[in-house]
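Chapter review. Work through the record for PepSY domain-containing protein before attempting the end-of-chapter questions.
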Amino acid sequence: MKHKMMLTTSLASLLIGAGAAQADEERLSVDRLDSVLEQAAALGFTHYQEIEIKRDERVEVEGWLDDEWQAEVRLALVSGESLEEERQRREGGARGMSEADIRLAMEAAEAEGMAEFAELQIDRDGRIEVGGYDADGRELEVKSLQGELEVVEVEYD
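Structure tokens for PepSY domain-containing protein:
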């Protein structure tokens, strides 16, 4: 019985540790946003709908290359190579965040204490949500409006 309890405790500790390691891999310090935007711009992105950090220093970028082409690309941050890419011709023109909008939203998130980000996204109404972590590892979401530095809402998990 004692051996079984020890094994269960060890397994639980291992799983918790693995979960923490996985969470650490799916975030990026806010100062590395520039490299993400540089790589996306080099591929032709002009408007962004979502930027999400994935495991192993990979990032997924969704947005528009111009007024006709919408794209979703997975990038390797270290090498800068495009790992996977999908493009679709769409009508209605480009929409989403400009690079300037992203920088304003991230500036607002940093002012609220964000040290690492995991995801940036915009909804159809122009609300931008930046999800990430503060310096203590606490999860937070900072919401602002497109083109504005003012924060609308901050949620801590």
